[in-house]
Amino acid sequence: MPEPAPAPADGLARDGVDAILDQWKAARPDLDCAPMGIVGRLSRASRLLERALKDEFARHGLEPWEFDVLATLLRSGPPHTLCAGDLSAAAMVSSAALTNRVDRLVGKGLVERGVDPTHRRRVLITLTDEGLRVTNEVLEAHVANERALLAALSGDRRDQLAGLLRELLLSLGDTAPE
């Protein structure tokens, strides 16, 4: 087993990805595996963040996908209503998946489904008063949770990371919805 590499030059402790990179360096010294460090850290960070977000939503009796639908309706502004097609596109799920999600949220009394009076074939999804209350309450806890999860980074470092991630996402084909 090769001796572990020294602590990174930035003075931070070594993480699990450092150990994997050490193994690759020993197994394939001819190959620059530095990209694995970035992608591996993004992947691990994503999993850890998703777990922490899921735990916070569970404290409020919600699944992450439920909050996503509720937050999308809240962001739409008063009257917090979207047609099913727009909600499906914003949530990036199929219409069948959205139907199931809306059914569950209707069952919880957080949204209601109605027919658009100006277009009878269009279904409208609206936050109920309880849905509006719950979404605002969970939103405040969610933002506080995300702030705590990023507390190890200064404001400048968070801004720098956000910019780098935006650049990466754009290069991978992610674009803002029109």
UniProtKB/TrEMBL annotation:
Pfam families: MarR_2 (PF12802)
SUPFAM superfamilies membership: Winged helix' DNA-binding domain
Top-rank taxon, per record: Bacteria
PANTHER family named among the record's database cross-references: TRANSCRIPTIONAL REGULATOR, MARR FAMILY, TRANSCRIPTIONAL REGULATORY PROTEIN
Domain HTH marR-type: 35-170
Protein name as it appears in the record: MarR family winged helix-turn-helix transcriptional regulator
Matches recorded under InterPro entries: HTH_MarR-typ, MarR/SlyA-like, WH-like_DNA-bd_sf, WH_DNA-bd_sf
